[in-house]
Amino acid sequence: MKKRNTVLILGVMSILILISVQAFIIIGIWQQKNEMFALRYNILSKDALSFISRRMATDGFDTVRFLLRQYSEQAVKELHEAKDEKELAAKKKDILDYVTTVVNKEQDLSEFLSDYFGRRGFEKNFNYSIVINDLEMISNDTIVVYRSQDFANRRLPDRSGKPSPPESYRSKILVNWFPWEDNNYRLVFDYFIDFSDKQQLILKETSASLGMSTLSILLVGIMFMITFRNLMEEKRLSNLKTDFINNMTHELKTPLSTITVAGKTLEMPQIRSNDAKILETAKLIGKQSVHLNQLINMILEISMWERTQFQLDKRTVEIDEIMNDVINSFKSGGGNGASINQKYNFSGAKVDLDIVYFTTMINNLLSNAVKYSDQDPVVIDIEGFTADNNLCIKVADNGIGINKTDQKHIFDKFYRATTGNIHKFKGLGLGLYYVKKIAEAHGGDVTVSSKPGKGSIFTVILPY
User: Which of 169, 203, 237 delimits the end of a domain?
Assistant: First the structure.
């Protein structure tokens, strides 16, 4: 368990580190693409401005300048006629609102840029923003109508001669800044563009890198899960192997020890003169030899089944008759006083079966019902019926039951339930493996339904 937890923790940490590295790479690629996107449209905007100026002899604000030239003279007069600070502040606000409206609504630059971008094969739909930094009315003296904090602190121009944009507009693309001065006003503003589908455009460009990163994370996660599952399976098989060796050692030592003791007993003078003791000891040796031979044959048959397909010697038999024979044989042989209730409704069905293997299958189910029971007497209910061209045989007991975890593996070779230490008899974990193999060899299957402390129901389904 400790090794399992360590492997799991290391694996999860490795995946988290990989995800962190991939996320860092993706963020870096995203930022790079974002900068390249802004640079692309910045350069494209400069080319557009140059083209517009050279071909059209305009910067897209001719109408704006014409309207402001007419309005500014009257605006200066109104500012000088203000009677107090409150009226002056109101006049300044009206002037700023008018200038802002005119600059935004009467400009033609946005249309020119959109047309230029489209003809060059680039995205032409964008939003524009005009940020007024400084507005002054000029006459004999200068009246500051509005001055932004950024402009007041006067940022140093960059190499292009433009001051850096305000912090709130850093995510937008600065096309140009416009410093104007006429007879009655001075105006400085920035013109920005922004794309509403910018994220989608960048995502499209980074989709390949994002896809590769996601794929690599998924592959590593899948490889980890496969490796972890294989490790756990190897650990389980190793435990099964150890349990099998321990159980097999116990099972083999019991008859061997009995035979050894019986052999030494026969060497004793007082036994050799007693024919009854000799006969009893000989029978004991014979019985244990048969048991030992059965164990060896079982292991050899398992090896044979692993190498070759089942070779069935099928015969057509009446299922009622064969079931009665199997039950009667079990009662007289290893039933250990179990109470067996039989309820058949086979309707005289005849089935092609290998009688030897079928008998072994039912015997193993009955033996398990006796072994895995702490009740006295052991009660076994056997029900048989036909359904959908299938032969169904249910073997139910009042034993200790099987938990959900063990139910997943009880048909595995050498597997023994975790409560195996309380069983009346030791085993090799091969009985139910035999049952499953025999059922499958006949083209059928076997299932189990059980609850701890409530007994178990094994259902064998065979086609006929």
Answer: 203
Q: How far apart are CA 223 and CA 237, in angstroms?
A: 21
CA 368 vs. chain centroid, Å, equals 39
CA 436 to chain centre: 32
**Looking at the domain assignment, is residue 229 inside a domain?**
no
73 and 198, same domain (yes or no): yes
Q: Which two tokens stand for residue 358?
A: 């079928």
CATH number assigned to the domain comprising residue 384: 3.30.565.10
- Domain-terminating residue out of 171, 203, 235: 203
How far apart CA 340 and CA 386 sit, in angstroms, is 21
How far apart are alpha carbons 445 and 432 in whole angstroms? 12
| Strand bridging mode 350-354 / 314-318 | antiparallel
Model pTM above 0.70: no
Residue range 30-83, pLDDT digits in tens? 777 777 888 888 899 999 999 999 988 999 999 999 999 999 999 999 999 888
- Tell me the helix, strand and coil percentages in the chain, rounded to 5: 60, 20, 25
User: What range does the domain containing 356 cover?
Assistant: 314-463
Give 393-438 pLDDT, tens digit per residue.
999 998 888 888 888 888 887 676 665 444 444 555 677 888 898 8
Residues 327 and 182 in one domain: no
Q: Tally the domains of the chain.
A: 2
Least Cα distance to 281 among 300, 258, 302 occurs for 258
